Amino acid sequence: MQKRIGRNDPCWCGSGKKYKDCHLEMDEKIKSYKLRGYKIPPRKIIKNKEQIDGIRTSGKVNIAVLDYVAENIHAGMSTEEINQLVDSKTRELGGIPAPLNYEGFPKSVCTSINDAVCHGIPSEEEILQDGDIINVDVSTIYKGYFSDSSRMFCIGNVPDESRKLVEDTLEAIQVGLAEVRPFNRLGNVGAAIHEFALSKGYQVVKEIGGHGVGLEFHEDPFVSYVTRRDTGMLLVPGMVFTIEPMINLGTDEIFIDEENDWTVYTEDGAPSAQWEVSVAVTEDGYEILAY
Ligand code: MF3
Ligand code: CO
What we know:
The chain is an alpha+beta fold.
């Protein structure tokens, strides 16, 4: 049961403002959507200004760590060296790498090469080769706030097909972002990405997706990239989630490494690409908090 909040009571969001000067109007609008059958976000995933500020600051660390990787990544290095770059830079900036020990994940970053779709575990034995494409997925906890973003890197001379896949997957993020605005629906983000990927002849991974982020590593909603138009959760200001489609050159079928129980691979061995941003829904559109 939810106790009704008076107009002059403090807002539920923790802003310290009176309800009537804060979320009252938005709640009434959300309620009208609910009455029309829309799935609406639970209050706990709607962030106030202070929380968005905290996630943005965490995102700055995340961005700086990825910039540092970008400056130092090269053929001949091991993915364990990338892990060490990420771990040391994150800590130098006052953050904690969120992946380390998350549900037993053994390293501070995910590194996924070629047919590895995501959740690759850095290793001393895995050496970056000329022609590889690699996703480096960095997630930071800073002053209690979580941010999450990933980039692709092309190592040396990458085949045209793979390079195009990497570029198109970045464009898919833009296509998804164009759907992020208050009172649009989450399904349109995934639908736009899916339509775009299919139009280029790719397949989109269905089983894994994005997520709410900020107060925890993984929050609601689940962000799929194979959704239908005009379905899914209503987007409202203060929601923060990731857009992180995994787009495959070949089949969308995947399997999980039986030995480490983490790394996801394409069934046919064809390359997969992924970029990830953390995005906030604002009053009139969106703000990227990590990229
Ligand atoms: N950064 C990944 C994501 O985007 C997190 C994977 S969980 C980990 O959701 F433990 F593998 F890091
Ligand atoms: Co993520």
